[in-house]
Design goal:
mainly alpha, 78% helix, membrane, transmembrane helix, transmembrane
């Protein structure tokens, strides 16, 4: 298998993945990540108080 044919197959696979998983909203993914990061920030600042 040549490098060119491997790259072509990977490109085809990558294009097909976006169509099959179109139900996953990027806004929901980003919003969920933001909520998790804010929760981790709150936990870190809550327990990292100077004594």
């Amino acid at each position: 298998m040549s490098l060119h044919s491997t790259a072509a197959q990977l490109a085809t696979l990558a294009e097909g993945e976006t169509e099959r998983h179109a139900s996953i909203s990027p806004f929901m993914t980003g919003g969920g990540a933001l909520v998790i990061l804010l929760l981790l920030l709150w936990i870190t600042t809550r327990f990292n108080r100077d004594r």
